[in-house]
Amino acid sequence: MTEQNNVTLVEVRVERIGQLFDTLDPTPYPRKDLAQTPEAFIVGWARELPRRQPIGIVVYLPTKEAESAAAQQLDDAFSTYFQYRADRLRLDRKELFRVGGWSLLIGLSVLALCMVIGQVISGQSETSYLNRFFREGLIILGWVANWRPMEIFLYEWLPLERQRRLYRRLSEARIEVRSYAAEPIVI
Fold this sequence. Notes:
The protein is an alpha/beta fold.
């Protein structure tokens, strides 16, 4: 990773352009998904950068690969892929909030039911330790039923949002292809 003109560069070196993309993805180039290893490498380095730092990606290829038509489309391929990942995370966050809403509705219903049952228990018999035990146990159960929705709305969405923002930054990254002389194979 180097810095050039206030843009931090994440540098990747491969022997062939095909190493950057998932071989199982039947989508034609340049719409293919990135392979796991290059994606993890790029995202890992980008995650360490300050959040407002512009990112550039430099792909080092042998001269013949660097001059190919596919190399000229790397900018579009990376941008499309990272934008797709950002959009998927936005949908995941939306789904998480939908599940959180239903969970909250269920949790509040359970809490209300537990409180009503607790009132019925305390109103039907004299105050005893056993009565108090069941009444307070029901209230605890009602609050525990709200644990998951509160976790979703307070904490769980934040990592998804951070990851989405990182992918958005990567989708806007400038891609530069640089060539290097291919090393001869020694037998």
